[in-house]
Amino acid sequence: MSDKSENGWGVARDAAALHRASMVWDNHAGFAYQRASDLEELSRWARSGVDYLSLNAGYDVMPWTLAVEALSQYRHWVRAHGDMMVEVDTVEDVHRAKRESKIAVAYDLEGMDALNGDVGMVDVYYKLGVRQMLFAYNRNNLAGSGCHDEDIGLTPFGRDVIREMNRVGMVVDCSHTGYRTSMEAMEESAAPVIFSHSNARCLCDHERNIHDDQIVACAATGGVVGVTGVGCFLGPEGATVAHLVEHIDHMVSLVGPEHVGIGLDAVLEDEEPVSDLSHHRDYWPESQYPSENLSTSGYIPPEALPQVTEKLLERGYKDWDVRAILGENFLRIASRVWRRA
Questions:
Q1: How many CA atoms lie within 13 A of 210 on its CB side?
Q2: Where are the domains of the chain?
């Protein structure tokens, strides 16, 4: 075993080699849009070996028009930095970014308020680079229920949106969604469904996490659950790689390594997540997000991803299974669902 310092990631040589060779896919970054220049921090993901990143372009807490503004600004910024980024249209763009040692960037929406009640906006957002969208951000909306609200299930509008998402090639995402709504969505969709960033509730009893039968139902659609690095969804020690790997282990034991991935939901270093929580408390109820813990739960940063690779190898995972979890599984979903815009 070599000196861990020689590869720059502080992990063993075999782990570093596998991480570098793998398609590393972070299926959700929880940036709260403020300015396009924030994306300068994407170099952190690139240095951590990430090949593909889905950026949050909007969520139900904010006006839907801000999502359009964010997409406009982000797309312009990414195109202007083509020396380090590739804006994603097709799966081939992801492969090209990997070959060119660049980071492939696509976008996601957290909640269908971004549609402003118009199913036709699904196609518009897809053409703007949005490749996945979840139903509701914690609270109910026109499409269905959030995980911190009365679970009324999938609405007729939500069913119409799923059909349109299936048609255009946008991935149906059930993170932040109520139990009944998620189960009905997985029945309704003709394409694989994902949880982009959700952990196992049996390991950490938080309403944002998902039950074992939701994990199994997701796998039955051909889908993938992305474990997330938000401390309060991980366990008593908060944002630790050990907890993250425990959630991976649990999901693998249920559905196999081919249905597990990663969506860290990491935020920018200069963002202050407590601000939104304190001003929109209905989206983050006190019972689930105690005030005294708002600034201490933390996030697993992208710099920890090589450690995840190392820990999986130490636990006896085969190289191919590690590669699947790091990114090949979400790549499979994209290859099956996305269409050319």
A1: 35
A2: 4-337
